[in-house]
Amino acid sequence: MLHVDHVFFSYDKTPVLEDIDLKVPKGEHVSVIGESGCGKSTLLKIIYGLLHVDKGNVYWDDTQILGPNYNLVPGEPYMKYLSQDFDLMPFTKVEENVSQFLSVFEPERLKKRTQELLEMIELTDFAKVKIKHLSGGQQQRVALARVLAERPQVLLLDEPFSHIDNFRKNSLRRNLFGYLKEKEVTVITATHDHHDMLPFADTVVVLKDGKIIAKDTPKNLFEHPKDLYIAGLFGEANKIPINIVKTYADTKRRIIVYAHEFRVSQKSGLEVEVLRSFYQGGHYMIEGIYEGQSIYFNHHTALEPHMKVFLNISIETINQRLNLLPDG
Ligand SMILES: Nc1ncnc2c1ncn2[C@@H]1O[C@H](COP(=O)(O)OP(=O)(O)OP(=O)(O)O)[C@@H](O)[C@H]1O
């Protein structure tokens, strides 16, 4: 098990991480999400031993992971870290980068493993190409293969698909996370993108201003977001007083409603003036105004600006949200 034990950290005087306590069982996939600057990369660097913490400890089973004040060369043999700058060797070939950390004394094993990884990242045809001739996305894939080469027990991935086009991203995510699950690798992925974690993470940790504000399964977090910050990580969301949509509800509670959960209806207490429509492919996202506040909802067609529409929410959505949301 990986244990981040009540860690506090600051680069200068301002705290960047405060009282981070996280236990990750062997083989579990954890996604760390949160807005830019909330401390995701810093947390991964601490786990890898690149930064010296102010307070707290990090353990892998019974071994303490020591920071740079104790380890001249950071990093542990069982752990790999894929940072946002890929740290590849620009003038050498793809295959040489992938096999960089493999033993040259076992040439057959090195060759087989390199081929296997090139297949996973779908760059077999580029084996002999120099890194400097690759696109940013291709370089990121090589960097990914390189950290996998030595079969780490713990893998720390910082925005692993940020440079990769959507065309490849989906198959790469499936290949990679499927492979890591099968090999029982413990994985911590820092990401902004809910597509990286909804289908793949066992647990999602939400960071805000350097603190863990939620930790749950992706499904629970998505279905019961406890505030707009968490809901906003999954898409456009609104906070609505429940009694305006269901007049019989004698409550002033407000619930979170995702844009896709609204339906335009004949009549409801929620009358919205349309501001503009944004084409999203399969639907439009409409920005409207209710009592001076923006409200976002999906609709199958664009709507004329200044048009008035009524919005409704299914009773199932209301019940789902009311079960868990505190007042306010
Ligand atoms: N080397 C550094 N020196 C000083 N402050 C830093 C340094 N690196 C990061 N910070 C600050 O620490 C905070 C957390 O940064 P961090 O990179 O961990 O956030 P993040 O959540 O990974 O952001 P992003 O999603 O944009 O990569 C930010 O306020 C950032 O400005």
What is the topology?
Elements: E1 2-10, E2 15-24, E3 29-33, H1 40-48, E4 55-60, E5 63-64, E6 79-82, H2 94-98, H3 107-120, H4 136-148, E7 154-158, H5 166-182, E8 186-191, H6 194-197, E9 203-208, E10 211-216, H7 218-223, H8 228-232, E11 237-241, H9 242-245, E12 254-258, E13 262-265, E14 270-279, E15 284-290, E16 293-299, E17 308-313, H10 315-322
Parallel strand pairs: 3-8, 3-9, 6-7, 7-8
Antiparallel strand pairs: 1-2, 1-4, 4-5, 9-10, 11-12, 13-17, 14-15, 14-17, 15-16
Helix pairs in contact: 3-4
The structure holds adenosine-5'-triphosphate.
Adenosine-5'-triphosphate binds next to helix 1.
Q: Examine the coordinates and then state which fold CATH places here, giving the name of the CATH topology of the largest domain.
A: Rossmann fold
Our count of helices gives 10
N-to-C series of helices and strands? EEEHEEEHHHEHEHEEHHEHEEEEEEH
Instruction: Give unreliable regions as ranges.
Output: none
Helix content: 25-40%
Estimated structural class: alpha+beta
Give average pLDDT, whole number. 92
Could you say which small molecules are bound to this protein?
adenosine-5'-triphosphate
Classified by CATH, the class of the largest domain is: Alpha Beta
- Give the DSSP E fraction (strand runs of 2 or more residues): 25-35%
Rg to the nearest angstrom? 23 Å
Instruction: Note the main sheet.
Output: 6 strands, mixed
Oligomer: single chain
GO molecular function: ATP binding
Organism: Maribacter arenosus
Domain ABC transporter: 2-234
Protein name: ABC transporter ATP-binding protein
